[in-house]
Write a structure and sequence with these properties.
Layout: E1 7-11, H1 19-27, E2 40-45, E3 57-58, E4 63-73, H2 77-95, H3 101-115, E5 121-131, E6 136-139, H4 144-158, E7 163-165, H5 169-180, E8 189-198, E9 206-209, H6 217-220, E10 227-235, E11 239-244, E12 249-254, H7 256-259, H8 270-296
Antiparallel strand pairs: 1-6, 1-7, 2-4, 3-4, 4-5, 5-6, 8-9, 8-10, 10-11, 11-12
Helix pairs in contact: 2-3
Amino acid sequence: MNIKNARIYRLSATLPVTAETLEQALSEFKTRPLSAQEFAHTGFCQPLHASINPLVTQLLNGVLVVAVKTTQKLLPAAVINEELLPKIEAAEQEKGRPLSRKEKQQLKEELQLSLLPRAFSRSTITRAYIDMAGNQIIVDTASASKAEDVLALLRKAIGTLPALPWLDNHKLNSQLQLWLQNKSLPAELTLGHNAQLKAPDEEGAKAAFKDHLLTHDEVQAHLQDKLVTQLQLSKAEVCTFTMRDDGAITGIKWADAITAKNDEMGYEDLQARLEADLYLLTSELRSVLMAVQGSVGV
């Protein structure tokens, strides 16, 4: 069990739910197998493991864990085009004229429907952590659109979800400039070794540094005409991560001291082990988020 990314949202009001009421609300939007003619479906699934039934897991630190499963049929464009071209040619011969764009699109849609029952399907699971004490929702994805999809389904199930950006982006952008200069860093955080910058003009010249000493003059010189868009930060013996200028945290890599902390538990009691792992990671992540938020402000 791991947390690799964090799209963070601030709740402007306390959610009117408990683990029990949330479980009931999510059960109405539970994942299910795709029908023969269905292209995709999104629903809530077990957040810990397919064999552990609750749709909501409450951790000892008050965090509620949920997960959204998206199942989608795979219809590669190459496969569709290979079968579509003969149909277009046959239709044009029959009509004695080239088909219009609308007619080609209609043939394509009919072909897709005929192929759906034979198509393979692929599923992805995205977890979300509702920090009731911290009044935040963290979605484990680097994709803004996937995070919004999770929030939309939660909002549909609960009926309300007053989620706002967790940071003031203007303040964050200013702080990123300072942090790259090794100034005003959040408590207990230090500079990592990766950064990306981009010029704010139309040309948008970029500079990227990986495994680099970021305080070096070669890097610092780019601050004269570019803005920091991504900056790696580190908390000793806990994790390294990339802070992005849109407020997302990506590429979280946990220190061995963290990932091995519960190893003595083993996996005999799978639920207890997974809950312990998530309790540890969400608690450490909460500490990191509080440090960043304390430095940037909302």
